[in-house]
Write a structure and sequence with these properties.
With about 100 residues, the chain is an all-alpha fold. The chain has 5 helices and no strands.
Length: about 100
């Protein structure tokens, strides 16, 4: 999470899409818990959504991934719970293009 927030410029443009896909996969894998890991994944996805300007469908993508996973409603709700906090916290991030 901190790497995405503060050192995102170190992630090469070629690896950003892979990072997004990996985080969405992890969201499905840990949708049933443990809860602390699920929360960190949700925070990381929200932070990545703030940094990755080309990703304009963050909420829709998370909802779609959770829907295809079947029983990942808790993961979707957790993501929606942390999203406003990350949006408000974006002032402390180093935003990249």
């Amino acid at each position: 999470m901190f790497k995405i927030k503060y050192d995102f410029h170190q992630v090469t443009p070629e690896n950003r899409e892979a990072l997004k896909n990996d985080l969405l996969e992890l969201l499905v894998v840990y949708s049933g818990g443990p809860r602390p890991i699920l929360i960190q994944i949700c925070v990381s996805i929200a932070a990545l959504g703030m940094q990755l300007k080309s990703w304009t469908t963050v909420v829709l993508d998370v909802a779609a991934v959770c829907q295809t996973a079947g029983n990942a409603e808790d993961a979707l709700l957790q993501f929606l719970a942390v999203l406003p906090e990350e949006v408000c916290d974006h002032r402390r991030m180093i935003l990249t293009v």
